[in-house]
Each structure stands twice: as structure tokens, then as C-alpha cells.
Amino acid sequence: MRAFAALYDALDASTSLIDKRRALVDGLRAMTAADAAWTVHLLAGGKIGGGKTGKIAASGELRRWLREESGHPEWLVEDSYAHVGDLAETIALLLPERLDAAPEREALGLADEIARLRAVAGTDEASRRAAVVEGWRRWRGSARFVYTKLLTGALRVGVSGGLLQQALAEIAAVAPAVMAERLVGGVAPTPEAWAALVAVDDGGREGPDAAAGSPARAAESARPYPFHLASPLEAAPETLGPIDAWQLEWKWDGIRAQLIRRGGRVVLWSRGEERLDGRFPEVEAAAAALPDGTVLDGELLAWRGDEPLPFAILQTRIQRKRPSAKVLAEAAVRFVAFDLLEAEGIDLRDRPLHARRATLGALVDGSALGLSPVLDPSDWTAAAALRAAARQHGAEGLMLKRRDGAYGVGRKRGDVWKWKLDPRSVDAVLLYAQAGHGRRSTLHTDCTFALWDGEALVPVAKAYSGLTDAEFLELDRWVRAHTRERFGPVRSVAPQLVFEIGFEGVQRSPRHKSGVAVRFPRMLRWRRDKTAADADRLDTLKAMIDG
Amino acid sequence: MPELLELTPEGLYCRAGDFHVDPWRPVPRAVVTHGHADHARPGMGVVHAADAGLGLLRWRLGESQALAGHGYGEPFVLGEARVSLHPAGHVLGSAQVRIEVDGETWVVSGDYKRDDDPTCAPFEVVPCDVFITEATFGLPVYRWRPASEVAAEIRAWWDACAARGEAALLLCYALGKAQRILAELVRLPGGMEREVLLHGAMGPGVAIYRDAGVALPPTRPLSDEARSKDLAGALVLAPPSAIGSPWMRRFKSVSVGFASGWMQLRGNRRRRGVDRGFVVSDHADWDSLLRTCRSTGARRVLATHGNTEALVRVLREDGIEAAALKTELGGEN
Questions:
Q1: What fold is seen in the domain B147-278?
Q2: Which CATH superfamily is domain B6-141+283-324 in?
Q3: Has the ipTM of the complex gone over 0.95?
Q4: Best interface-test mutation with B: which of A89, A97, A483 has the largest number of B CBs within 10 A?
Q5: Mean pLDDT value across residues B113-129
């Protein structure tokens, strides 16, 4: 546990990627295989309980047990939590320094503590409370904080998937691309999985080296390839050279996915490396007709007739494990393929895009398996015109893919660009602010914005990004000085400040008071030049509703 | 009957004695608790303060400011008020102000702490009817460990930086915090032999503490070093404003630490973007605030600057008449 806490502290203390990577390599190497496996699992966003394991502690229970252990009244615990912004940290700070003489078992590892907690998952509250409190009494300082963090969710310690991949690649002495493959689909928190992950050579493991034409993964494997991700195009498209070297497609607004047909099975993986089994039966049925040893890269989209439906329709399908016939009829989904990564069991990723694409068309039948069309503008000016019309086609911009480019790993820049439409925006009035989380836990950064509906301001969006640190600091001071009322951690403020709020889409939503829901709202600019009276009207936003 | 102290646009005012306590606008007569900028502002007629704090006030307010010094616990008369100053344990020469009029006693704490501090006289509990307390860290998440332990951590960090060939740059306030850290470092084994480099803004304050007889390690202005000199292995103290300034270019390879009570929270550490946060404060922590308010025996407590709400509520549940007092004081120094 101390080793894990020390690694957490080192990652938390450092702002440099080089230092973080060093800390990961040194920290993981110093751990037992069992502890290292859990550490990787947790850093990749995994949890210790929930789901099939059962509940270990709900947030409300942790707060109640904290009240009982610290002797503080409920309001004081809640005030402290609102001030700190992180429950695990609040608990670590409010518990007495030492509750009683529980033995400090320094040698107890992360995996031991997790095993102890998992053993009581799903049992009655008294047993779970006793197990959790035992750890609170055992650990002090950062070990107590990190131990509690295991119970409250994501670690949020600034380790990206890419950084973890690099550190693990260094430990195993393999290329980052090889490690990327080993990591796809997650790593089980077991010593065996750790041993396989950091095995020096790939002998006996599934997964190919990256050479073109080499035999692909074992025929029965359900694992996807690492996704090749596009980077946003920031420069003018002309800087990419002649348009002939590029394949242009619509940038779809759905769920990026790989469709794997191997060993007589069909498996769908989202870009978030989540298996989507059973959620899209129409796609799985259509894919059953694909020849064995085929992997397609594409986008899941709700579809009707000739065109895609807004993302909101697809959203009604994402969490539904076995959609009813009614749902299937109302929101039919299609997999729109745009790349062929494996055919006849051969890994094609090193071949040029035009070669991969050449055989793709023959594989899809246009039913629940569609083909993302290749657009053919004569020059960049014509391409820009296509982009401007993307919304009419249900797309959010263009994809630019180098015709002779290979299929890379991760966000490898240069061969694939997304050239999205500029976000749409409204000028909205700040109504409420709340402290953020993590490094913003003492700043009021989570803001609610409103538009005019007659004489009233109606909330339409929450946003917490888009300003600079200096602007957030200034905003925080303003919020504190202009608070009208406090509702727990939320402050209502004088309706004076106007911000330009950007978003990707607008849908009708009966659940929202305003009647609309915006996608990916964020602050684009602090409009210091505007007063609340200058803000936009709700009708302006409603006029932008998609579809 | 009017209140012994009332809040006016200039600050806390004692009508019976015709003087203000820590006023934020110019007034003829001010009683000032200590030299921090939010308490000691320029432009006053006469400033009454503790003898031990006069050096700092002269530095902060200039030679032209008329100062009247008083020994701790020695009463003096202003108008119809009997006034005395008592140690607050915050920084060198910091004082609580005891004011007695017609048998009623009020105490203004100024900023204070209860923890051990080799640079100033320890806080003294002064019984009173009404206690005006600071509440900068008025939540139970703020509980301090002894500064001597934190100093040992600072030393370990300094050594680790030296081993990596980095300079250790410690950001801390120039008046009080810097000298307290130096005084704690000197108590560590070999502390007298380890020289500390100072940012230009630190020099005068350190000299005043040294003149007052506080044991400090050898120090030297960083500006004395040749620009080409490698600062690897050095400990440098600088005010927080130094970060992000061109002055920082002086360092090739540096680890930045920040010493403040606010460093108790991860969010603050991360927002500052520093490598290390050291929790050391010259303000009372939660336990000290409660203990102090209770031990003064005051029937009424007014809490000012900081997280006053929780403190007020807990004291009210104790049966003490408590309320928040909105002043223009505040900020951790």
C-alpha cells in the first residue's frame, strides 16, 4: 500500500511527463506482480468493486461512517467536502490522526487491501463498514487518502493511456505499438496478466508484430487493433499539399468502432475499448455474412433511409443491452465502414489506405453494414464548400486521410486529420457556479449558463472548460464577491457576466426546463463587452436544433 | 449603549477611545496588530503597536510614519479606553488588542496561531467579554502538524534536489513565513552551517528578525551570485510572485516548493503548478480556533476573514453568541 501511495504522490506532485513516466517505471518495477497488476488496472480507470463484484461502499455510506468515526456533525462534513471537492481527500483530512491502536502493517500491499475489501463486497453494511474502517485506522497520510480513493472512483492523477503505455513498453522493453496491442481491451488485475503484459518477447502470445501481411491475431481472438486516431486540422488545408494525395470522407458524429469477424463470431468494440456485445443486434446479424478473418473500422450511426440521424437518437441505444423490436424500428443503427484492417486473417495495417479501401466496398452490402463514401472535390476550395455543407449530410465536418498512409497506432499525427465545422455558439448569462474537482477543487469553475425566454433567464448549459487558468481565477473571485445565495456547494450569482458558449449540437429535450439539450458545451470567450441584456434568446438556440 | 467597537468604512472603530484597529483607510489614530499589508496600511496619523513589531512596521510603512510603541501587557489610555497589547504568536511583534471601557472588555485577535514558533512570543489567552477572532482556516480539514516536522521535510527535499543536481526554490511570504522556516531549519542538525540564498524581496525582513535576536542560518542575496553560477544544490527563498517572472530564468534546473497552509489541499497544490507543497501556516488551525475562542471565556465571538460560517455555527451550538463580521482583512500571509 505504501508503494502504491508513494507512486501516487510522485505522479500527483509532478507536472512533467518525463518525471511521471520515470515514476511509473520505477514504481511499477518495485512492486509485486499482484500490486503492479492492480496499479495498472486502476491507472487505466478500472475500479475495485461494483458490477459483478458487488458494492463495497456508496458515497453516502462513506460520509456516514466518516461522521461516526470523526464525531463531526453532518453539516460540517458536508461543508468540508464542498470546500475540498474530493471525498477521499476530505475523509483523509477529517479522520482523527490515529483512531486507536490498529497495527500498522507496513508490508500489506495494495492487492492485499483490495482483496480484503472485495471479500466483503455485496454483504451487509456492518461487515463492509468494519472492513473499510479497518483500513482507515491502519493507514495515515497519503496512504490513507489513496486507500480511500480506491473506494470513491477514478484516481485522476494525470496519467493518460499513452503515458501508461510508454512506461509499460519501457518496462517490457518492447515497442510502444506492441504494448498498445497488449493493452487493448484492458488488463485483468491478476499477477498472470501483469506477467503477460511485461513479457519481454511476444512468444506464445497472441498479437502480431506490425509487419504488413503477417498473420493476424489468433483466429479465435476477439481483440481489436489499437485505433488510429485523427488530429484536429489547425492549419489551412492547403498546407497539406495537393488534394490528390488525400482521401476525403464525412466526419460522422456517432460511435467509432471496430467490427471483428473471427472464429465464427462477431464482436464490436468502441473506441473507448468497450465491448458493445448485444447492443446492436442488427449490425451483428449483418456482419455474420462477412468472411472469417475480417476487421472493419467505422462508425456506428442511427440511420433512416439515406441519411444518419442525430447523435441523440443513437444515444437511446448505447446503454440498452437487448433492445426491443420497437426500439430497433425507431432507432435503427448501421455500421458505416471506412477502413479494412484485416482480411482473410491477414493484418493489412501497413498497406496504403488506397489498397485497403479498394477491397472494402465488396464486403459491405449497404444494409446494416454501409460504406462511408469517398468524396471527390476537385480542389481545397471545393472541399471547404463540402465541409460547410456537412451538417446537411448529418456530418460534423470532413476527414482527410493520406491515400498512401498506413493505419497507425493512437494519435499519430500527419496521415489522418479531422477538419470539423466550427462549433456553433450563443452568448449566455452566468447564473450558477460550483467548485470544480481535482486541481480546480477550490475554484468555482463549473458554471451554469442561461438564455432569455421573455423576461426570464432559463438555464441551457453547464460548462467547465475553455477559459485560461488566469481567467478562471478571476471568475472565481468574481463569483465569491457576487454570490446571491448558496445551495450547498452551488452559488447563485448576480446575472451580469456573459460568455460565448460553443457546442456541437442541439436537441429537443423534454427533461430540461429549457426544452433543449446541447452537446459538448464549453466556454469559448468571456464576453466582457456584453451585458446580460445583450445575451441571446432561447429561441435563437431552438432555431439550431438538429434534424 | 453603543458597541465598544463598531464597523465603519475605515475599519473597526472604538468611539470611546476615538481610534481604529487595523483600519484600511487613513485615520488619525490606529492600533495595529502586526505588519502584514492587510493590517498595516499607510497614511495613518499615529500608529500604536507592540514594541517588538516596530521594526517591521518601520520597514513596511516607511520612516515618516509616526509610531507609538508599547510593551506586551502594559496598559495605555486612549480617550476613555484602557488599551493593552498581548502576544498573538503570528509573526514577530504581532499583538492582540485588549480594549476595556466601563468594565467591558473586548479583544481583537488580529491574526494568530497557537503553534510553536521560534520567531515570536507565544499566544497568550486574554479573558474577555467579546472576542473578535480571525477564521482564515475555519474548517476541520485544516489541522497543522508541527512546523519542525515540516522543516525536516523541506530539508529532505532540499537534499533530494541537490542529489539530482537541481536548485530547490521555496516560495513563501516574505514577512513571517520565510523567517519562521529559516528559524526551523537552523534547529535541524547542522542547520547553522547551511547557507540559504534569498530573493531580493526577502532581505529586509530577514535582517529585521536577525536584529531582534532570532537565530537564523547564514543567508546571502541571490543577486550576489555570479549570473553564470550553477545553483544546483542551493536552497533559495522567494516570494510567490517570483514564479513566472523573468527572475526565474536564473534557474537552469529547479524544483519549486510552496509553503502555505493552503497547501493542505491537493487542489491548491496542483493549481499552483508547483512540484511540492509544504503545509506550514502562521494562522490558527481548526482545533486552535475552537480552543482559543472557548478559553477566552467570551460570551460573544465575532469571526472575521476566512471560513467564518462553520466556526460561528459550532460556537453557537456551544451556547456562545457568535456571528460573522465582514471586514476587509484577510488572506494568508
A1: Rossmann fold (3.40.50)
A2: Ribonuclease Z/Hydroxyacylglutathione hydrolase-like (3.60.15.10)
A3: no
A4: A89
A5: 97
